[in-house]
Design goal:
Elements: H1 2-14, H2 19-26, H3 30-37, H4 45-55, H5 77-88, H6 93-110
Length: 112
């Protein structure tokens, strides 16, 4: 989860947002968010979506760019964490791909 935490910090800092600002938007403590950003505490999908919303980005932007590989869910602990969490909720790998594709299409339609 360190890669996701690093990306959260980078995006937060790009937006000139302090840890306190983000913590307030998420109703979490700064120490809790610091653990997320430093990869010391796992982030569940619900919180990933809340973080993305607070940072005004698509949730997929919190993950490393996987354009170079055919399967974006291989070889990366962050992606594997998400896939495993979705599998526990009953989703298949195909459903995960479709869900992400639909989100991207909807975002594109809205012009974001």
């Amino acid at each position: 989860m360190k890669n996701i935490g690093k990306r959260i910090r980078r995006i937060r800092e790009e937006r000139k947002m302090t840890l306190e600002d983000l913590a307030k938007k998420l109703d979490k403590s700064t120490s809790y968010l610091s653990k997320w950003e430093n990869g010391k505490k796992p982030i569940n999908l619900e919180n990933l979506h809340k973080i993305a919303e607070a940072l005004d980005v698509d949730v997929t932007e919190l993950f490393p760019n996987k354009e170079k590989t055919e399967n974006p869910f291989t070889g990366d602990d962050d992606w594997l964490f998400v896939v495993n969490e979705l599998k526990e909720k009953g989703f298949t790998a195909s459903e995960v791909y479709l869900r992400l594709a639909r989100e991207a299409i909807e975002k594109d339609k809205k012009g974001n």
